[in-house]
Amino acid sequence: MRKVTSSSKSKQKSAANAADMPNYKEFLWYKKHEKALLKQYLGRFLVIKDEKIIADFDSKVEAWKETIKAHEPGSFIIHQCVPVDVKHLPRLANRQFSAVNG
User: Fold this and answer.
1) For the segment 49-93, what is each residue's pLDDT rounded down to a tens digit?
2) Where are the domains of the chain?
3) Is 17 helix (H, G, I), strand (E, B) or coil?
4) Among 19, 24, 40, 83, which residue's Cβ finds the most Cβ atoms within 10 Å?
């Protein structure tokens, strides 16, 4: 029988929380299709809802302003379609995706 240490507990808890985050499935969908999306949408800000792209824009601000006209905030994600360096992998923080430098 393996004893669960406090660090193991926190890792298990954070992994479960990430999977339960609203719209996390959209990010996972993006990662699954990233190679093809990069060819078509490189540099664009993609609005992803229900595991599909509903729009793409030149800027994050434009994407937000236009998307909230027809969709409830929190029901979609906006993600810039750019190649990701391993050092800058996305991390969930306060229900938003952010880049971690380091």
Assistant:
1) 999 999 999 999 999 999 999 999 999 999 999 987 655 655 555
2) 22-99
3) helix
4) 24
Cα separation of 78 and 90, whole Å?
Answer: 13
d(CA 82, CA 44): 8
- Secondary-structure breakdown of the chain: helix, strand, coil percentages, each rounded to the nearest 5: 45, 25, 35
Q: What is the pLDDT of residue 96?
A: 52
Structure tokens at 61: 């601000």
Of the chain, the end-to-end C-alpha distance in Å amounts to: 37
Does the pTM of the predicted model rise above 0.90? no
List the one residue out of 48, 81, 78 whose CA is nearest residue 63: 78
Nearest to 37 by CA among 51, 50, 18: 51
